[in-house]
Each structure stands twice: as structure tokens, then as C-alpha cells.
Amino acid sequence: MKPIEAVKALHVITGLGVGGAEQQLRLLLRHMPMRCDVLTLTNPGPVAEGLRADGVRVVHLGMRGNRDLGALPRLVRFIRRGQYDLVHTHLYRACVYGRLAARLAGTGATVATEHSLGEGEIEGRPLSGGVRALYLASERLGAATVAVSDTVAARLEGWGVPAARVHVVPNGIEAVRFRFDEGVRRATRARTGLPERAFVVGGVGRLVPGKRFDVLVRAVAALPGAHLMLAGDGPERAGLRRLAAELGAQSRIHLLGERDPLGDSADGRTPGIPALLAAMDVFVSPSREEAFGLAVVEALAAGLPVLHVTCPAIDDLPAAEAPGARRIGTGTEELVAALRGHMEAGARRLPPPPVVRRYDIARSARRLLDVYDLALSAAPEPRVPGPVTDPAPDPAGAAAPDPAARPEAGLTVPGPGSPRRTPGAHG
Questions:
Q1: DSSP strand E in 242-390: where?
Q2: Which GO terms describe its molecular function (predicted)?
Q3: How many CA atoms lie within 13 A of 62 on its CB side?
């Protein structure tokens, strides 16, 4: 088996908008010792730009939808041409197509990460019997499946994925980026128009129904003088803005749009997630269902007290790992009461708890490399690829359609919904 530094790996992901899985991929690649290329099936968004800035080759396959079966032979040829030792897939559609393509291309080592599997949904969309059956069928084509939390691992095993094939590699953060700085706090509040002494509640995530940010808007609206900073974008943004107006709190509800999870904009004018966390007094995650809860860990790294409905990253551990985090119910009244208590106690910063060290990204990268070793050691000798004469996908855009390509007879590949095109700040 090759030394890990000599391994050539391809990461296949559904899209590269601003989301938790996408940003996690970028962070992990900064800690990988081997050459890694990235192929995105759709939406080469802001994370693609960031990866390229990091020196990573990014290719856009130009997939047109969940049932664009012409993408499969294009993906097979790309993997075969690249002579990759390992293929790592991320997000539902990429896992279904990528594992099958890797098998057809003769790549023996295939790993998939399950980033966003809930009890009744996957990547924020309802789970159907067909989606689940196809997921399980494609899972058997890989060598290993990575779960981002013990909660997700238990769900996979409950589905019937053998426990020996499931490996927990938690999401990670670069904690130093979130270290609290009083000067950053003052500057960020000034740039976002917040009074220096205002009580500021914060939230980060995609503005989709499952995140339940409407509950957070209602709770802050019920607290005169409190402000809400909400970073993220999505289909619920207009509705949240209308709700704030109906409640007479539009001047205190600040919908900030997408923000870079790694730092401020290149020109320094737009605060990123670390600076926004510095400006907050308490962080709230009202989502009923999460696969990990990365935004909560980042808030704890920034020294914020946290209120959360569910967060496997915290809930799977002893309470002493995250003393600043408090689990609450789903009701608006309970959230209002909890926020009022923080408001009356006054702003306070906490030391980063032990859980922050547990979820260091370098530690997660080392655990992932152990999974790679297992997959590579079990892989058969690679086949010698045959001649390829068709053009490769354009690294700067979509691949040219291949009218001569024909998918396998009878193959249908449904997905959990439309492409994950609506980006947010975090998953």
C-alpha cells in the first residue's frame, strides 16, 4: 500500500455553496497530507472559490438535476482518467452517484461522509422509502461510511448499515479563529449599526423551516431592547422579515445574509462569523433536529453562553464538557424566559469549554486518515484504465454534454429533493 502522502484522492460533493458540509470539507483539506482534488456535481459557489484560493483543484461536473443520468458516465470517466487511489463522497446525491461511479471506474477505496441525517429528514428534506432504499443500496458499494456524530452513527446502524462499516469522525473547527476580542466586538457592533451596550442574541444557519428561526424572531421581539443578529440566507428570509415587521421589531431584527464562516471578507468590510460571534451576548440554536451542531461549537469557542433545542455535538457528551450550553424545549415562552434571564444577568464571556478542544479540526483530520488507511488496505489492486478520448469536464464551468453516453439500463436515481442550492451560513 502507498504511503498516505503519495495517495491521490478525489472528493465528490453535491454542491459548494456556503453550508456546513461544504465548509467542513474545505477545513479538512487544509489538514490532509496527500493531494486532493474536488469535483462538485452542481453549484460551484463561494466555497469553490475558497478551495481554489487554498490551491485545491476544483472541477464542476455540470449536473442538471437528480435524474441527470448522463452525469454518471461523465463522472466514471473523470475518476478513471484521474487514476485516483481513493474517492470520498459528501452529501446524498454525491454519495449515490459517486460511490457507483467509483465502483464502475475500478477505484477500490471509497469513503462517504454522512453530514446531515436526521430521524425523519436528510439534508433538511423529508426521508421517503425510496430515498432510504437507494441510500442503503449505494452504501454497500463503498468501503466505509463516516458519521459526523454518535447520533448519526446510531441512525445509520438503525437503518441496517453494519456497525463495522460506520466510523465516527466529528466535525471540527479552528478554535483560534473564534477567540474573543473586545476590540473586534466594539468594531463589529459599530459596523452593523448595533448600540454598544445593547443585549444581542445571535443565530447562524440556513434560513429554512427546519431551523425554526421564526421562534427566535418571536422570542427576541418579545424582549424590549433586545436585538437579534441572524447570519445566513435561504427561502425563509422574506418571511422572517415580514414576521419581524408584524411584531413591530423590524429595527431590532438584523438579517445579515451569508457570512464567511472562516473570517471577514477579503476587503475587511464585511464581518464574518467569528466577528459576529464576538458581537453577540448569547447564542441560540432553535432547530429541532441536527446531525452535529457546528455553529453551537463555534459559539462556545467564542465564549458565548448557548441555548439549544438539540445539538448532538453537545448532547452526546457529559454536561461537564460544555458547561455554558443549556438545552431547552421547543416552546417560544421557554426561550423568552431563558433569554430574559441572560438579559437581566448582563453580558458575560465564558472560557472556552473542554468540548472545543475535543472538536479541533486537526484531530478530526487524523481520525479521517485512520479511516482512509482502513479503506486503502482493504482495496483490491486497481485496474489499468482503458483509453479515454472524450473531453474532460471544464474546471472553470460545466462539463460538455455527452450525447453518446448511455446510462445503465433500468437505472433510476431519485433524490431527496431539488439540489442543495440555497446556501446558508452553517448547517
A1: 253-257, 282-285, 306-308, 325-327
A2: glycosyltransferase activity
A3: 15
Measure the CA–CA gap between 272 and 269, rounded to whole angstroms: 9
Q: Which residues of 12-22 are buried (b: 16+ CB within 10 A; e: fewer)?
A: bbbbbbbbbbb
Radius of gyration of the chain (CA): 22
**Which bin fits 233, alpha (ψ -120 to 50), beta or left (φ > 0)?**
beta
What is the spatial distance between Cα 105 and Cα 108, in angstroms, rounded to a whole number? 9
Query: In the CATH scheme, what architecture does the domain 4-172+361-378 have?
Result: 3-Layer(aba) Sandwich (3.40)
Cβ atoms of 109 and 372 within 8 Å: the answer is yes
Give residue 65's pLDDT.
81
Q: 319-352, pLDDT tens digit by residue?
A: 999 999 999 999 999 999 999 999 999 889 999 9
Rounded distance between C-alpha atoms, residue 346 and residue 73, angstroms: 59
Distance CA 72, CA 114 (A): 21
User: What's the CATH architecture for 175-358?
Assistant: 3-Layer(aba) Sandwich (3.40)
Instruction: Give the Cα separation of 427 and 425 in Å (integer).
Output: 7
Q: Is 182 exposed, middle or buried (0-12, 13-18, 19+ CB in 10 A)?
A: exposed
Q: What is the pTM of this model?
A: 0.83
Domain ranges of the chain: 4-172+361-378, 175-358
* Gap between the Cα atoms of 328 and 335, Å rounded: 7
Which burial class, exposed, middle or buried, applies to 148 when counting CB atoms under 10 A from its CB (0-12, 13-18, 19+)? buried
